[in-house]
Predict the 3D structure of the following.
Amino acid sequence: MKLHPIAAAIAFAFSATTVVVPAATAADKALRNSSATVTGVEFTSTPAPGSAAEMAAAYTRSSAIVSYGDGSRKLFPLSHHTLFRSGDRIGGGEAGLVVDHAGKPIMTSAPDGKGERAKGPFHAYAPDANSLIRVMDGKVEKLFLITHYEYHTEAPLASGTGTMELYAQLPASMSLARLAQDRRSGALTATQMANIDMSGIGGLWIPCAASLTPWNTHLAGEEYEPNARQFEHEPLESMNLYLGTPGKTAGEGGANPYRYGHLVEARVDAGGTAKVVKRYAMGRLATELADVMPDERTAYMGDDGRDTMLFMFVADQARDLSAGTLYAAKWEQRSADNGGSANLKWVRLGHAHEAEIKALVDRGIKFSDIFETATAADVKANLEQFKDFRPVFVYEGQGGRGAPGSGMKQEVTYLKLKPGMETAAAFLESRRYGAMLGATSEFTKMEGVTHNAEDRKLYVAMSYIEAGMLDGQNGERPQDHIKLKGDAKDLVCGGVYQSHLSGAQNDHGGQPIKSEWVAVTMDPLLLGAKKPFGQPQGAYDKCDTERVANPDNIKYSAGMRTLFIGEDSGNHLNNFLWALNVDSGNLARLLSAPAGGEHTGLQVVPNLNGHAYVMGNIQHPGAANDLKKYPEAIKVELRKKIDQRGSIGYLGGLPAIRPKNR
């Protein structure tokens, strides 16, 4: 087995004293159920793909080296398992099936710019988040897996010729699967499946990542909120498909853009019924996910996209996300080098209960009810008339300028808040309002967040570091908080930042923030880099094949002292799942996805009846849109060898991880 150099050194050092434990043996069972305390976990590294067969499939060659309190070390080979794929039928349900408000399969998509529609039924090939949830039914433990599906990639045209890209052309879905566990081997199996009913919240919009809350609920983010300025005058057809209101704007009874772009919380009862609610008080943004801190009140939200913000929500009460205060971060730069460093200040946007925000949406509030708008040309022509308007340059939401597929260049807009609209702006136009109040809106491209409670650290993935984050590249942006220096070809490979979490902090207005988990700094933990000259691996890669490129999904394991990092990279042909030990700094590649696939759905399950798991999905493998820039040998020939259905699964082979008391 070829190892990463650091991992190879670790394996060599342990070779004399390490016991290799194969899966599903009696010794393995006894070890997994022992009370031995884990004192450390390291991983050996899987080699990058070296053949077309490896480029076309998911695989791991890694092992976990587990150290115990009694001085022993044991080597556990990892294995990758697929629970199910998009379209699989399990116990009467179909994975990723796209349905309307009545639960019936949708048979045609919303029209594209040419008026073309795709033909269904549709099974979304982009599974994103997972939450493995354990529920007690009396003395019986039941296992459930919530999975939501971000979007479908493409489907045949209804006209019968060609295919159609389907991003944002369909409503989304969320499934609930019943799982069974083989207690001896640890193997998991899906035995039942059904879609979770979204009719009570008006349907689900482009859900991205998620987290399992400390109170055992699935907290999902609706990403790339629909641009309410645009959809005040145009029908939001993808959600009209769900509601059965084709061709209607919100004012005519169609889908209201302000109903989408929120956190969605799902709870499962012992009978296997899931109920969902939208958390309107947590703001409306391109939510990657919300990660809840140990106080069970403070949550951080990654705002996915370019020219976005970092948000913090502090709930009024623990385990209750229905009411609280919303903040947006301001970057106060300390250094421009090596990814930059800053102190963070927090701009208070407002306080609300979700009932009052939902009431605004139910009454049909519109973008024009909240803001007056003007263009740069308007302001230039009449400075006096527009003196009270403030310039903002932010991601506008799906369908707006700068959105994927919009064909429109992002530009500055001048806004003036209408009287009495502060609360509406804070919770329905969180990014625009945050920019008006002076929060930093240059983060590009922000993705997932996770935390390390023991070290009081927040980790934030910045998938691509580019555009307004770079010194001298601010363009027409009205503010320039982030001014990073360095080679743009290195920075575009992205990185992961870490923030120190502290109490006794005040907001930008001098008012106390009622949380002991406030992020006060932001510094790089690791950075990608351009591909070194002559590197033999990854012939099609633009970023270093042996380093993380364009991190997206991240999850931290306290027991393993490990940050798991999933890539969504246009600079690695094959995206990788990495493990970073935060103590040793060892970085190991754990899993390679098929070309064009993205690693999503990360969740660490530290101890399920003597076994540990890293849950994970592979989203849109072999998607045409992700491979279109590559030569024919990749986008045509290699693509033919790839199963293009999304897969939902896990890394197995790990023993239960019982962390020592540090």
In short: The first helix runs from residue 5 to 14. The mean pLDDT is 94.
